[in-house]
């Protein structure tokens, strides 16, 4: 059985109302909850210890508008999603947090270890502040529920006043004088970035965060960028800050790139070739946003978008209809160049369509090179410059190798 919904209110057709009561230890535990859709009713148990997932018996086809960003000039697109079968657990990765204390790195909340004892190296920890933690889904999804595991060996009451957002839109909050052990929050949002904001000035500790919902079939996914480079680096603004998952637009938060003055560029490579649909850029906001006002974007050397305006933007999404893997942003003006985050959305390309070129009936595809060596090195021309993704042919751009005067050689090994 299926149902076609054309109004936003249809998003509420499938929703689980989870209660919470205290167990014998005084800690809240999840009660049985009822899920109902199209006359079918099922009992749902979300356990503190297990991994039970709600199981609705329904197919839903719905149409909705998906907003790619909440910046100055928001781009949207209409997509159709088909939800089939049970709500499933969605994978989180690429995490970040406001700060790190006592080795409590952000990835501890998404490592699959639900141990609630900090000494078991399973919980995050920030400094004393109104901190935040966030992680990104591997692709956009309709998020139905978010489950949080609190610390139990100590200090559980630190996690008693916070709210949760999905792509910047609030979907749940918690405020109580009573601490919880494990709690599941209803959340009816479409997005990719899950963020937890602490309202108190206290360390933020999360022992695990789990997300349940429906993957979006037919929707573009976020594509992972890596292996970046830029024309130069100033003030410690390394290129990787634009692809670290931290979209904070304040330079002092170590989240933005920075070059020397010049006609600059920045680039990064997708992990595999893809049909790129949209590219989203986060500009610096604490200072100097007008530096990013005249530039163009290329994919594998082919222009797909450009921007030229006297008006600065905060976050902007550019349409781009190109197949490739190397995303490059070139400034048209002479000055400093800063990017706080670059996100790419599109569809992965199957091996069979990675290149139009064919040899003997087989599809030709690009192979990765690594572990290089050369006969000698002169003038800082290390071997890795030939496989760093930087195709600039000007030696002064630190993009070419150099040996001594000899019958030299260079080699690299395929990554697989």
Automatic annotation (TrEMBL):
<feature type="signal peptide">
    <location>
        <begin position="1"/>
        <end position="22"/>
    </location>
</feature>
<keyword id="KW-1015">Disulfide bond</keyword>
<keyword id="KW-0479">Metal-binding</keyword>
<feature type="domain" description="Fucolectin tachylectin-4 pentraxin-1">
    <location>
        <begin position="91"/>
        <end position="217"/>
    </location>
</feature>
<keyword id="KW-0732">Signal</keyword>
<protein>
    <recommendedName>
        <fullName>Fucolectin tachylectin-4 pentraxin-1 domain-containing protein</fullName>
    </recommendedName>
</protein>
<keyword id="KW-0430">Lectin</keyword>
<keyword id="KW-0106">Calcium</keyword>
<dbReference type="InterPro" id="IPR008979">
    <property type="entry name" value="Galactose-bd-like_sf"/>
</dbReference>
<comment type="subunit">
    <text>Homotrimer.</text>
</comment>
<dbReference type="InterPro" id="IPR051941">
    <property type="entry name" value="BG_Antigen-Binding_Lectin"/>
</dbReference>
<dbReference type="GO" id="GO:0010185">
    <property type="term" value="P:regulation of cellular defense response"/>
</dbReference>
<dbReference type="GO" id="GO:0001868">
    <property type="term" value="P:regulation of complement activation, lectin pathway"/>
</dbReference>
<feature type="domain" description="Fucolectin tachylectin-4 pentraxin-1">
    <location>
        <begin position="227"/>
        <end position="350"/>
    </location>
</feature>
<dbReference type="Pfam" id="PF22633">
    <property type="entry name" value="F5_F8_type_C_2"/>
</dbReference>
<comment type="function">
    <text>Acts as a defensive agent. Recognizes blood group fucosylated oligosaccharides including A, B, H and Lewis B-type antigens. Does not recognize Lewis A antigen and has low affinity for monovalent haptens.</text>
</comment>
<comment type="similarity">
    <text>Belongs to the fucolectin family.</text>
</comment>
<dbReference type="GO" id="GO:0046872">
    <property type="term" value="F:metal ion binding"/>
</dbReference>
<dbReference type="InterPro" id="IPR006585">
    <property type="entry name" value="FTP1"/>
</dbReference>
<dbReference type="GO" id="GO:0042806">
    <property type="term" value="F:fucose binding"/>
</dbReference>
């Amino acid at each position: 059985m299926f149902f076609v919904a054309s109004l936003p209110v249809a998003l509420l057709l499938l929703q689980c109302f989870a209660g919470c009561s205290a167990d014998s230890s005084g800690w809240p535990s999840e009660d049985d909850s009822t899920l109902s859709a199209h006359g079918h009713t099922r009992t749902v148990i979300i356990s503190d210890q297990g991994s039970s997932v709600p199981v609705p018996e329904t197919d839903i086809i719905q149409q909705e508008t998906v907003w790619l960003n909440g910046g100055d000039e928001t781009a949207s697109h209409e997509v159709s999603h088909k939800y089939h079968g049970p709500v499933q657990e969605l994978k989180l990765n690429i995490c970040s947090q406001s700060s790190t204390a006592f080795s409590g790195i952000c990835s501890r909340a998404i490592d699959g270890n639900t141990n609630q004892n900090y000494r078991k190296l399973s919980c995050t920890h920030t400094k004393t502040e109104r901190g935040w933690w966030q992680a990104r889904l591997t692709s956009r999804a309709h998020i139905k529920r978010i489950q949080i595991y609190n610390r139990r060996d100590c200090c559980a009451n630190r996690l008693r006043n916070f709210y949760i957002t999905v792509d910047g839109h609030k979907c749940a909050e918690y405020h109580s004088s009573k601490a919880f052990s494990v709690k599941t929050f209803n959340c009816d949002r479409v997005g990719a970035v899950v963020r937890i904001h602490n309202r108190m000035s206290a360390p933020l500790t999360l022992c695990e965060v789990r997300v349940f919902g429906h993957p979006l079939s037919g929707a573009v996914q976020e594509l992972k960028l890596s292996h970046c480079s830029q024309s130069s680096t100033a003030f410690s603004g390394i290129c990787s800050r634009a692809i670290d998952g931290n979209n904070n637009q304040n330079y002092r938060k170590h989240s933005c790139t920075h070059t020397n003055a010049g006609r600059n560029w920045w680039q990064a490579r997708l992990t595999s070739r893809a049909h790129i649909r949209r590219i989203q850029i986060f500009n610096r906001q604490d200072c100097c946003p007008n530096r990013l006002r005249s530039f163009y974007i290329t994919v594998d050397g082919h222009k797909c978008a450009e921007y030229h305006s006297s008006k600065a933007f905060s976050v902007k999404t550019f349409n781009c209809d190109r197949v490739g893997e190397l995303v490059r942003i070139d400034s048209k003006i002479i000055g400093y160049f800063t990017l706080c985050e670059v996100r790419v959305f599109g569809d992965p390309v199957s091996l069979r369509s990675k290149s139009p070129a064919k040899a003997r009936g087989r599809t030709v595809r690009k192979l990765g090179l690594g572990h290089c060596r050369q006969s000698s090195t002169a003038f800082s021309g290390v071997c890795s410059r030939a496989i760093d993704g930087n195709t600039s042919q000007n030696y002064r751009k630190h993009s070419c190798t150099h040996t001594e005067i000899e019958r030299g050689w260079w080699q690299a090994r395929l990554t697989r």
